[in-house]
Amino acid sequence: MATSSEVKKVVLAYSGGLDTSVILPWLRETYGCQVAAFVADLGQGPGELAGIVEKARKSGASEVFVEDLREEFVTDYLWRMLKAGAVYEGKYLLGTSIARPLIAKKQVEAARATGADAVAHGATGKGNDQVRFELTYMALAPDLKVIAPWRDPRWTLTSREAALAYAQARGIPVAQSKKSIYSRDRNLWHISHEGAELENPANEPRPEVFVLGPPVERAPDQPEYVEVEFQAGVPVGIGGMRPGPVGIVEEANRLGAKHAVGQVDLVENRLVGIKSRGVYETPGGTILYAAHAALEALCLDRDTLHYKHAAALRYAELVYYGQWFSMLREALDAFVDKTQERVTGTVRLKLYKGQAHYAGAESPNSLYSEDLASFVMGKDYNPQDATGFIHLFGLPMKVRGLVERETQQAQGGAAKRRNK
Questions:
Q1: How far apart are alpha carbons 135 and 123 in whole angstroms?
Q2: The whole model's pTM is what?
Q3: Rounded to whole angstroms, how far apart are CA atoms 256 and 123?
Q4: If one looks up domain 184-300+343-368 in CATH, what number appears?
Q5: How far apart are CA 152 and CA 30, in angstroms?
């Protein structure tokens, strides 16, 4: 942990919420240093960043940086994750996990630009985000000092009431309205919900949990179709439009949320060893993942597709664990990019009651042959060829079966002789 005398200027990852609003002046008072606030616009939603510069300055920030990172977030992070097919523990599309390395990277760049010698974050000592932020700092700026207030023994603001009192005593503007009973994180890709009744895995989520779309039972009774167009594994169009990367995610979100697509209730294994329960809404991401997987099924051969599925599990762990800036992730990207060279085409999905159902796909690189798939035998498939193939393919199993049969017969004969 850095000492107060060692830090002259720190760049804080600042969201404008209660925690970072009190962390900012706490850093100034505890470390006696200048504090610059870094704000990342990742598509948190309308109004969330309104007035944030003035608020940071009133809290004591010497400088405030606000960067619109939505385009970079989509093209350099989400699209890479999508092409890899990364899903954590079968359900989580990694909306919070994938955002943290980008925020930390830009935070480091702000520190370099302003001559800061330290960076800070507001992640608690119980969650995954502390790891994601700090692994990025270590990879990109190992010389910078890292301040994690929630792990600092001098940090005493461990309740909302204490934080509010601290802010009010210093004239720091904080929202006075009743706090949501849920802890939420939102960006262009998803929104997460934790806390309240969700802390008990025996409880069903209340309808008011959902923010982006209705609960599935209230979704429209009529399905809606959408087409997603890909070029080398990257979404380039949706619904006949080409609105750009951010626009594609926004339109997929709009359609998916309307039909309650992408609502996931998950008990997950955190990196720090704790099981946690959360509800996620990832409507657009779910649509794009489903479309991408359908196109890969057409365009990739069996061995490549199966190996890619195995690599996707490891890729998801790297994202979840905060190891984005690792050599392994870069190496896996090279493999993924090679597999995606043929993944071009259009997929049609039917959105209905929380699901994105496959409704057809076309690709100039499709490996699907109607002639071969047909029940009618054609010139390219001689059924007699299967006889030798099956014999050789199953030979190890046959040998084992013969050995076991001989062993059983021998044991049976020995038993009969003993009984005589």
A1: 13
A2: 0.91
A3: 30
A4: 3.90.1260.10
A5: 10
d(CA 352, CA 269): 30
Contact present, 108 and 137 (Cβ < 8 Å):
yes
Q: Which strand (E) or helix (H) includes residue 338?
A: helix 327-339
Assigned token pair, 236: 């380039």
Residues of the chain with pLDDT below 50 are 176-177
281 is written with which tokens? 């809404």
pLDDT of residue 172: 87
Q: Are 129 and 150 in contact (CB under 8 A)?
A: no
CA atoms within 13 A on the CB side of 248: 25
CB proximity list for 139: less than 8 A, separation 6 or greater: 325, 326
Task: Tell me the torsion sign for CA atoms 179, 185, 187, 190.
Answer: negative
> How many angstroms separate the CA atoms of 31 and 229, rounded?
52
pLDDT at 180: 67
Q: What is the CATH number of domain 4-69+94-169?
A: 3.40.50.620
| Active-site residue list | 19, 100, 129, 183
Enumerate the domain spans of the chain: 4-69+94-169, 184-300+343-368, 376-420
Q: Which SS3 state, helix, strand or coil, does residue 134 take?
A: helix
In this structure, what are the phi and psi dihedrals at residue 349, rounded to the nearest 5 degrees? -125, 150
The pLDDT value given to residue 376 = 60
DSSP state, 7?
Answer: -
